[in-house]
Amino acid sequence: MMNMVKNGLFLCSIGFLITIYSFSGPTQQMNVGRLIVGLALVVVGGVMSWRGKKTTKDDERGDKA
Fold first, then answer.
1. What range does the domain containing 50 cover?
2. Averaged in consecutive runs of 10 residues, what is the pLDDT profile of the chain (65 residues)?
3. Is residue 41 a contact partner of residue 18, using CB atoms and an 8 Å limit?
């Protein structure tokens, strides 16, 4: 399940990069399409990493019992 956590964090980092680059340089105009895609990737990656950590904790509890 650690793979799910790693993939989620990777998607979060890519989403943050897309969100940062949704603003153009000197004019500071926002590209709404890139912003939405970036935020969607951040949300999906966050959910994936949260679910991966949750299942990892549940597996550890099951192993100890």
1. 1-63
2. 85 95 85 95 94 76 62
3. yes
